[in-house]
Design brief:
The chain is mostly helical and 355 residues long. The chain is built from 11 helices and no strands. The protein is globular and about 55 Å long.
């Protein structure tokens, strides 16, 4: 598989990432304000992020890793991509909860999270979050593990092996939904292994979808807007039960497959895609800051939803452009310049998971 890499933008996947990140932000807005969620199943957007990550990583790095590219250098590239915004969000988040914990527990959790590791239960309760100051970061933790697993398996990831991984992943996904009664699992210590159950299926389904995309080409191209609205619809349906969660999570990789086939350029999609990782990582601390200056008791929270989402999205877009882009560029030059430079390309669409 020594074929040359051809960079390609997937504008519709950018659009889907941005829409999914907005849906997650509305879910946390509802949790912060106590208002009913507009998209009660928005937590399934994380499964979409995992599938997007598998697709994009297979596209950008699959052939190089199959041909023996350094796993460690690949993982450093992933850290260069994910860590700057993660660090910014962690610093802001831990500053906001300063004083809510004892100094020992605060320093313990802060130190672990700085290393991209889950914090031990800071209150002694298993309901505590893995990343208590930056809740969405639990998915980034599992995405890095999935990246490492893919990089290690890549030279041996034949169709048969990938099929076996998918079968195991689907089995674990069903067990996760049945065991927890929901797929809204992974962010807390009480549901820690739910993260593994969700990422194993979705990430490698994204890898499989990329291989199918390579072989089959375009066989159905819905409009980008229709696909985005359909995604929001499945996240908004007021259907309860873990069975619905599992079915939707199992089918979400198809959104990636269909979205990859829509080649029409979209300025909105590119803008949302560029801002989506910053939006996903930073929306909780941004919303917490915004809520401190919002008249919660006097204004219905659903009325404030649109302006709050607009402010959060614009703030994330500014951080992505004026902080994340230059810092990642500087880190990339610092780490990979010179004779030991790793010849693995960077393409415009980078996943987060998120994922």
């Amino acid at each position: 598989m020594g074929t040359a890499f051809v960079a390609k933008r997937f504008d519709t996947l950018d659009l889907l990432r941005g829409v999914a990140a907005l849906a997650v932000a509305t879910l946390h807005y509802a949790a912060i304000t106590g208002s009913p969620p507009v998209f009660p199943h928005a937590y399934l957007a994380v499964d979409m992020f995992f599938a997007l990550s598998g697709f994009v990583i297979a596209h950008a790095y699959g052939s190089q890793l199959t041909d023996g590219a350094s796993v460690s250098r690949f993982m450093v590239r992933r850290l260069v991509r994910l860590y700057p915004l993660y660090l910014l969000g962690s610093l802001l988040g831990w500053f906001l909860i300063l004083g809510e914990l004892s100094p020992e527990r605060w320093l313990s959790g802060f130190g672990a999270n700085l290393l991209f590791l889950p914090a031990l239960p800071l209150t002694g309760k298993m309901t505590a979050g893995l990343f208590p100051a930056l809740w969405p970061a639990w998915s980034l933790f599992w995405e890095l593990i999935a990246n490492l697993l893919f990089a290690m398996l890549a030279p041996r990831l034949s169709t048969r092996v990938l099929g076996a991984v998918l079968a195991l992943g689907l089995l674990v996904l069903v067990a996760t939904g049945a065991g927890y009664g929901t797929l809204d699992a992974g962010a807390r210590w009480s549901t820690f292994f739910g993260g593994a159950g969700r990422v194993l299926w979705s990430y490698f389904a994204g890898v499989a979808v990329y291989r199918l995309y390579q072989r089959c080409g375009s066989f159905w191209s819905p409009s980008a807007g229709l696909l985005a609205m359909l995604l929001l619809a499945v996240l908004a349906l007021p259907i309860s039960g873990w069975g619905y969660d599992v079915v939707i999570a199992a089918l979400l990789p198809l959104f990636v497959l269909f979205g990859a086939q829509i080649a029409a350029p979209s300025a909105i999609g590119r803008w949302l895609g560029h801002a989506s990782y910053a939006l996903y990582v930073l929306h909780v601390p941004i919303l917490n800051v915004a809520m401190r200056f919002t008249p919660l008791s006097n204004t219905p929270q659903l009325i404030l939803l649109l302006p709050c989402m607009g402010i959060t999205l614009c703030a994330a877009a500014c951080v992505a452009r004026y902080f994340d882009d230059p810092v990642r560029g500087w880190l990339g030059r610092l780490v990979f310049s010179g004779p030991r430079r790793m010849l693995i390309p960077v393409i415009p669409l980078q996943s987060f998971r998120r994922s």
